[in-house]
Amino acid sequence: MPLRIEPLPRMAGHLPFMRGRLGSLDDLNPGMVGAFGLASGCDSRTDLAALAMRETSAYFGSHFNANMKSAMDIDQRRALNSAAMAGAIVDLGDLMTDPATGGFDAVIRRTVAGICERGALPLMLGGEQWDVAPAIAGLRSTAIASAGMAVLVICAAPDEFVLEARDVHCLVSASPRSMANSACLPIAFRDVRQRFEGSLGSILGHLGTRPVHVALDASALASHWHGTNRRADFDGLSLSECRTLLRKLGAANIASLSITGLDPTINGLSLVKTGQRLLLTAILDLIYARLNVLGPRMERI
Amino acid sequence: MPSSDKPTIGFASPLTQFFGGSAADVSELQPGDTAFIGMPSDATHTSRIGTRFGPRALRHETSLIMAELRQKAGDKLFDLATGMDCVLGGDRALVDLGDAEIHPLDVGKTIRSIADMTRGVVKSGALPVAIGGDHFNSFPACLGVSEALMESEPDARFGYIQIDGHLDFCDRLAAWGPFNHATNARRCSELANIRRENMVWIGIAGWVDGNDVAEIEGFGGLIFSAEDVHRIRAREVARRAVAHAMRDCDRLYLTIDVDALDSGFLPGTGSIVHSEITCRQYLDLLEVFAEAPLCGIDMVEVSPPLDPSGRSEAIAAQLLFEILRPRLVVERRE
Questions:
Q1: Whether the bond into B220 is cis, omega within 30 of 0
Q2: Which of A106, A130, A162, A188 is deepest in the core (most CB within 10 A)?
Q3: What is the number of structural domains in chain B?
Q4: In this structure, is residue B208 part of a structural domain?
C-alpha cells in the first residue's frame, strides 16, 4: 500500500501566524487578533523572531483544521472552541519603514492604534524591548485609552526604556530595580515562584480595569531548559508559571501585547526551536483566554 | 607500545549490538532471553524526521553503558539504587536480532516485517525489545506480540501502557491515512487480544484532541497528563497505571516514547513537548514498570540528527537500561 495518499499539508504555501489569514487592517473586526512582525534586531537576531514564531505556530494550526475537531488542553482539561477561532487571527505581515511618513517607531505606533481602533487585539511579534515604547504610544493614542491605561512589563532585566518610562505600572523581573515611576509595582520572579496566587492577585489588582499593554520579553523565560534570549536568566519563569500568568491576563483587560527579545538562534540547555515553541504555547493561552474560546473544565468520565 | 593494556571500550568491534549483547538469529533464542530488534524507519513521521538513526545510536550508547560498567566495576558491582552487591547479566542472554526490513514506500510490508520478528521472539519465549524509529513502528511491534500470544493462548488478554507526550490515537491523518506516528495507539487498541479498557497513557502534555480523550475514557482507558505526573508523583502514577493495565490480564505491553520528556532535556525527538517531566521522573516511572510482567517493550522517537550534542540518545539509553535493569543487573549469589 502506498505510504502517502494526499499532498503534504505541513509547510506548503504561506505560513501566517497560527495559520490565520493574511490580511490588512481593513480585515479586522472587533474581537479578532491582529498579528504583525518586526523584522528588526540590533545586537541579536531578534529580526528572525517573527519568522520563527510564525513557523512554530504552524504546528498549532491543527487546532483549527479537520484533523483536530476539538482541541483540548490535557493539563487543564479544558476544551477549545475551534469553530469560534476560525478567522479570528489575521496576520498583517512584517512592518516596513516608510521614510515619507517617519521611522520605524511611527509605523509601529500607527499599526497598534489602527488595530485597537477596530476593536482587535494587536499582537506584535519580534523586536527588542525598546520597540515596546511606540506600541504603548499607539495604544495611548486611541479612544479606548482616553481615560487612562496601564503597562505591564515582564522581562529578566529591564531596559533603560522600561526603567525610565513613566507609564509602566507593573514590572515582573528577576530583580526589579528602582524605577523613575514611583507608582510602578515591582514583582520579582522569586515572588511569583513562592507566592504565585498572591503575586497574580497583586498584579491584576494593581493594573485595575484600565486597558493594559502587556510587554513580554523572551528573557523572562527560565534559560536552564530552553534558551530564548541573549540575557540568560536561570531563575526565570517556568512554562507553567508563564502560561498561567498569560492566561489570567488574557481573561483580564488586555488591550495589546508585544513579544520581544526572542532570538531563535540561541540554545538553552536544549537546541534552538524548543524555546520558541514554549513561548508560543504560553502566548496561545493568552490569545485563547482573550478570545474566550476555552470551555469549562472537563472532568474525567 | 599500546597506550592501554586493556581492550578499548565501546565501538572496537566492527558492529555494535544493544548492551554489548550477541548478534544472533531468532531461531537461536532461548526462553528468558532478551531480544532486541531495530526498527529504523521514520517514513511514517509527519514532520521532524531522523529517528531512522535511532537504533544505530542506541546500539552505541547502550554498549557504552555496559562496557563502562564492566571496566569500572568488574565483578564487584554495587547498585546504589538497591544497595545490593550485583553482577552484570546473569543467566539470560542479551541478543541483538538486527534491524527489521524497512520498506519506506510500502508501509504494509514494513508492518509485516517488524511484526514477524516480534512474533518470532515471543513464540521462542524471549522478551522482544523493539527500538524505533518513529512511534508508528510500535504498532507492528505490538502486532507481532499480539499474534504470538493469540496462537499460544487464544483466550488470554494483555494490558498496554504508553509513556508519551501525545495520545497517538488519531484514526487517520489526511496525507498519511491510517498508518503514521499519530495513529499507533488506536491501531493497537484494535488488536483482538488487547484489553482496550486496560490501556493507559502517561505524560500527555499540551493540546490534544478532546474527542480522543472522551473516546478513551469512554471505553475505560486511563490518561495521566504531565500535570498528573507532577501532582500525583511519578512512582504513584506508575503504580496506578500497572494496577489499571493488569486487570484480568497477566501480561503487559509497554511502549516508551522518549518525547514525554521535556524537550529541554531531550530535544532529539520528532515531536517535542514542554511537559516539564524530568529525567528523574521518567526513571521513576520505568523503575516501577521494570518489575511488571512485560510481554513486549518498544522504545521510539530517538532522533540523533536533531540533537548534535548526543545527549538525547545517551538519556534514551539510560532509560532503556532502567526498564531492563532486572535483566541486566542481578543480585550476586555467593
A1: no
A2: A162
A3: 1
A4: yes
B75 touches chain A (CB under 8 A): no
For residue B264, give the nearest of A4, A72, A226 by CB distance. Answer: A226
**Domain membership flag for residue B224:** yes
> Looking at residue A256, what DSSP letter applies?
E
Nearest to A277 among B108, B272, B306 (CB): B272
Please indicate whether, in this complex, the C-beta atoms of B174 and A67 are within 8 angstroms of each other: yes
Nearest CB to A79; choose among B44, B210, B309: B210
3-state helix, strand, coil in chain A (%, to 5): 40, 20, 40
Q: Do A269 and B265 touch (CB under 8 A)?
A: yes
Q: Enter the pTM of the model.
A: 0.87
Cα–Cα dist B240/B236, whole Å: 6
B282: β partners: none
User: Does any CB of chain A come closer than 8 Å to the CB of residue B209?
Assistant: yes
Enumerate residues 6+ apart whose C-beta is below 8 A from A299: A77
Q: What is the pLDDT along chain B (334 residues), one digit of tens a residue?
A: 555 555 555 545 556 899 989 999 999 999 999 999 999 999 898 878 899 999 999 999 999 998 888 777 766 777 776 777 777 776 678 999 999 999 988 999 999 999 999 999 999 999 999 999 999 999 999 999 999 999 999 999 999 999 999 999 999 887 788 999 999 999 999 999 999 999 999 999 988 989 999 999 999 999 999 999 999 999 999 999 999 999 999 999 999 999 999 988 898 998 888 888 999 999 999 999 999 999 999 999 999 998 888 999 999 999 999 999 989 887 776 5
Are A142 and A118 in contact by the 8 Å Cβ rule? The answer is: no
Full domain range(s) for residue B111:
18-331
First to last CA, chain B: 39
Q: What is the CATH number of the domain that holds B159?
A: 3.40.800.10
Instruction: Kindly state whether residue B43 falls inside one of the protein's structural domains.
Output: yes
Strands (E), chain A: 21-22, 33-37, 71-73, 78-80, 89-94, 121-125, 150-154, 170-173, 185-188, 212-217, 254-260, 294-297
Above 0.90 for ipTM, yes or no? no
Could you tell me which residues come within 8 angstroms of residue A106 by beta carbon, excluding any fewer than 6 positions away? Answer: A98, A134
Name the residue with cell 541573549: A230
| Domains defined along chain A, listed by start | 20-295 (3.40.800.10)
